[in-house]
Amino acid sequence: MPHHGNEFEHEAEEPVRFTDKRKIDPETGAVRGESAADSPQSGNAHEEVSPAGEAHDTDDALKQAEDILNNASTDGAESGSDEDANTREAELRTDLLRLQAEYVNYRKRVERDRDVARHDATRSTLSQLLPVLDDLDAARAAGDLTEGPFASIANKLDQIIANAGFERINEVGVAFDPTVHEALMQQPNDEVPADHVAMVLRSGYQFKERVVRAAQVVVSTGPAE
Fold first, then answer.
1. Region annotation Disordered: residue ranges (predicted)?
2. What's the number of CA atoms in the CB half-sphere (13 Å) around residue 15?
3. Contact indicator for 166, 208 with CB cutoff of 8 Å
4. 18-37 burial string, b = 16+ CB within 10 Å, else e?
5. How does pLDDT run across 88-130, given as a tens digit for each residue?
6. What's the whole-model pTM score?
7. DSSP structure class, residue 30
């Protein structure tokens, strides 16, 4: 029949029209063009995942967790059950405390790692100056740095490394400590007790209570008999 023929021709053109313009699927009756964010199911999933995702993007997990906790009472009121609301709020409060602890631990770990990296870089840089410092000590021992511009430069360099936390290990008369001293020899000494440093042959250095280089020393064996 002509009427059916026109309908057939109309259906032959439908795929393009349905895909681009129709809002209702003729077979399933579902609404076309509805985004995932508009559907109720997608909206619930978004509410559950969004706080964690936004906390990761903005590095503000605590604020996101607090927002969830503040919305707990509203969610419980909408559900119509005080018991469910209280249970939900308790669960969210527990999650908030856990998240807060994780966040604090994360910040402490980041700060600790940053300090370690900074100290390692400083120690590595100052360690490269050890030969220069040894030459300055030798020049002082020989009396070549008592005055003049080089003596001023040497004193400024000593002040710089001291301010950076680099400490010398060159004290005489202290008890021998194998963690900071390297004994090259032992000899009697009437002025220094046994097992004490009688002479420093080469200064040692430590940075932030960590030994960079042990001091080479002569250890006293006590008064000569």
1. 1-88
2. 1
3. no
4. beeeeeeeeeeeeeeeeeee
5. 778 888 888 888 888 889 889 988 888 888 888 888 888 899 9
6. 0.52
7. P
